[in-house]
Protein backbone atom coordinates (compact mmCIF):
# COMPACT_ATOMS: atom_id res chain seq x y z
CA UNK A 1 0.00 0.00 0.00
CA UNK A 2 1.14 3.52 -0.82
CA UNK A 3 0.15 6.82 0.75
CA UNK A 4 -0.93 9.77 -1.37
CA UNK A 5 2.52 11.30 -0.78
CA UNK A 6 4.21 8.08 -1.99
CA UNK A 7 2.09 8.03 -5.15
CA UNK A 8 2.71 11.72 -5.72
CA UNK A 9 6.48 11.12 -5.58
CA UNK A 10 6.29 8.03 -7.80
CA UNK A 11 4.11 9.63 -10.47
CA UNK A 12 4.94 13.32 -10.30
CA UNK A 13 1.23 14.06 -9.84
CA UNK A 14 0.21 16.36 -7.02
CA UNK A 15 -1.98 15.13 -4.19
CA UNK A 16 -4.61 17.58 -5.48
CA UNK A 17 -4.53 15.94 -8.93
CA UNK A 18 -4.81 12.45 -7.42
CA UNK A 19 -7.85 13.49 -5.40
CA UNK A 20 -9.34 15.16 -8.50
CA UNK A 21 -8.86 11.98 -10.57
CA UNK A 22 -10.61 10.01 -7.85
CA UNK A 23 -13.48 12.52 -7.63
CA UNK A 24 -13.92 12.49 -11.42
CA UNK A 25 -14.10 8.70 -11.56
CA UNK A 26 -10.76 8.23 -13.30
CA UNK A 27 -9.26 6.43 -10.35
CA UNK A 28 -11.82 4.22 -8.66
CA UNK A 29 -11.91 2.04 -5.59
CA UNK A 30 -9.01 3.68 -3.76
CA UNK A 31 -8.94 2.03 -0.36
CA UNK A 32 -8.88 3.95 2.91
CA UNK A 33 -7.05 3.24 6.14
CA UNK A 34 -9.04 3.04 9.39
CA UNK A 35 -8.06 6.70 9.87
CA UNK A 36 -9.53 7.63 6.47
CA UNK A 37 -6.24 8.09 4.61
CA UNK A 38 -6.03 6.96 1.00
CA UNK A 39 -4.09 3.74 0.45
CA UNK A 40 -3.07 3.09 -3.13
CA UNK A 41 -2.24 -0.35 -4.53
CA UNK A 42 0.03 -1.45 -7.35
CA UNK A 43 -3.13 -1.76 -9.47
CA UNK A 44 -3.92 1.89 -8.73
CA UNK A 45 -0.42 2.84 -9.86
CA UNK A 46 -0.93 0.85 -13.06
CA UNK A 47 -4.25 2.62 -13.67
CA UNK A 48 -2.57 5.99 -13.08
CA UNK A 49 0.10 5.05 -15.59
CA UNK A 50 -2.54 4.49 -18.27
CA UNK A 51 -4.48 7.62 -17.30
CA UNK A 52 -1.32 9.72 -17.57
CA UNK A 53 -0.38 8.09 -20.88
CA UNK A 54 -3.77 8.83 -22.39
CA UNK A 55 -3.93 12.35 -20.98
CA UNK A 56 -0.38 13.21 -22.04
CA UNK A 57 -1.12 12.02 -25.57
CA UNK A 58 -4.14 14.27 -25.92
CA UNK A 59 -7.13 12.20 -24.84
CA UNK A 60 -9.70 14.34 -23.03
CA UNK A 61 -10.56 13.65 -19.41
CA UNK A 62 -14.11 12.93 -20.55
CA UNK A 63 -12.87 10.21 -22.93
CA UNK A 64 -10.56 8.77 -20.27
CA UNK A 65 -13.46 8.70 -17.81
CA UNK A 66 -15.53 6.85 -20.41
CA UNK A 67 -12.71 4.35 -20.99
CA UNK A 68 -12.37 3.72 -17.23
CA UNK A 69 -16.14 3.27 -16.87
CA UNK A 70 -16.16 0.79 -19.76
CA UNK A 71 -13.33 -1.12 -18.14
CA UNK A 72 -15.37 -1.52 -14.98
CA UNK A 73 -18.37 -2.75 -16.97
CA UNK A 74 -16.45 -5.85 -18.01
CA UNK A 75 -15.50 -7.80 -21.09
CA UNK A 76 -18.71 -6.98 -22.95
CA UNK A 77 -17.23 -3.49 -23.50
CA UNK A 78 -13.98 -4.70 -25.05
CA UNK A 79 -15.06 -3.77 -28.59
CA UNK A 80 -15.92 -0.21 -27.54
CA UNK A 81 -12.66 0.15 -25.60
CA UNK A 82 -10.62 -1.08 -28.57
CA UNK A 83 -12.40 1.37 -30.86
CA UNK A 84 -11.84 4.24 -28.44
CA UNK A 85 -8.11 3.41 -28.27
CA UNK A 86 -7.86 2.94 -32.06
CA UNK A 87 -9.40 6.36 -32.64
CA UNK A 88 -7.02 7.89 -30.11
CA UNK A 89 -4.06 6.17 -31.78
CA UNK A 90 -5.11 7.53 -35.18
CA UNK A 91 -5.33 11.05 -33.71
CA UNK A 92 -1.87 10.63 -32.20
CA UNK A 93 -0.42 9.51 -35.54
CA UNK A 94 -1.96 12.52 -37.29
CA UNK A 95 -0.58 14.90 -34.64
CA UNK A 96 2.85 13.28 -34.86
CA UNK A 97 2.87 13.72 -38.65
CA UNK A 98 1.97 17.38 -38.20
CA UNK A 99 4.70 17.80 -35.57
CA UNK A 100 7.21 16.11 -37.92
CA UNK A 101 6.46 18.78 -40.53
CA UNK A 102 7.10 21.49 -37.96
CA UNK A 103 10.28 19.77 -36.82
CA UNK A 104 11.51 19.58 -40.41
CA UNK A 105 10.84 23.32 -40.85
CA UNK A 106 12.63 24.23 -37.61
CA UNK A 107 15.56 21.95 -38.50
CA UNK A 108 15.83 23.64 -41.90
CA UNK A 109 15.86 27.05 -40.20
CA UNK A 110 18.51 25.94 -37.69
CA UNK A 111 20.71 24.81 -40.56
CA UNK A 112 20.02 27.96 -42.59
CA UNK A 113 20.84 30.33 -39.75
CA UNK A 114 23.79 28.23 -38.59
CA UNK A 115 25.31 28.65 -42.04
CA UNK A 116 24.64 32.40 -41.94
CA UNK A 117 26.23 32.55 -38.49
CA UNK A 118 29.28 30.61 -39.68
CA UNK A 119 29.70 32.97 -42.64
CA UNK A 120 29.24 36.03 -40.41
CA UNK A 121 31.81 34.82 -37.89
CA UNK A 122 34.22 34.00 -40.69
CA UNK A 123 33.85 37.52 -42.12
CA UNK A 124 34.24 39.02 -38.66
CA UNK A 125 37.43 37.01 -38.06
CA UNK A 126 38.87 38.33 -41.32
CA UNK A 127 38.05 41.87 -40.19
CA UNK A 128 35.39 42.35 -42.84
CA UNK A 129 32.45 42.80 -40.51
CATH C-level class of the largest domain is Mainly Alpha
**Annotated CATH topology of the largest domain:** Multidrug-efflux Transporter Regulator, Chain: A, Domain 2
Share in helix = over 70%
Tell me the β content: under 5%
Distance between the termini: 67 Å
For the largest beta-sheet, the strand count, sense and barrel status come to:
2 strands, antiparallel
Structural class: mainly alpha
Number of domains: 2
User: Count the strands?
Assistant: 2
Order of helices and strands: HHEEHHH
- The overall pLDDT, averaged over residues, is 94
Shape: elongated
CATH architecture of the largest domain: Orthogonal Bundle
Strand order of the largest sheet: 1-2
* Radius of gyration (Å): 24 Å
Could you describe the 3D structure shown?
β1 and β2 form a beta hairpin. The chain has two domains: 1-73, Orthogonal Bundle (Multidrug-efflux Transporter Regulator, Chain: A, Domain 2); 78-129. It is elongated, with a radius of gyration of 24 Å. It has a two-stranded antiparallel ribbon. It is built from five helices and two strands; from the N terminus they run ααββααα. α4 (61-73) runs antiparallel to α5 (78-125). Helix content is 72%, strand content 3%. The protein has helices at residues 4-11, 15-23, 42-56, 61-73, 78-125, and strands at 31-32, 38-39. With 129 residues, it is mainly α. The termini are far apart. The mean pLDDT is 94.
Amino acid sequence: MYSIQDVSKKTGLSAHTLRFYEKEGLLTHVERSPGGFRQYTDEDLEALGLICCLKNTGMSLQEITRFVALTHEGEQTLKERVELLRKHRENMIARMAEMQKYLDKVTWKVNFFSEKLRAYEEKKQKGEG
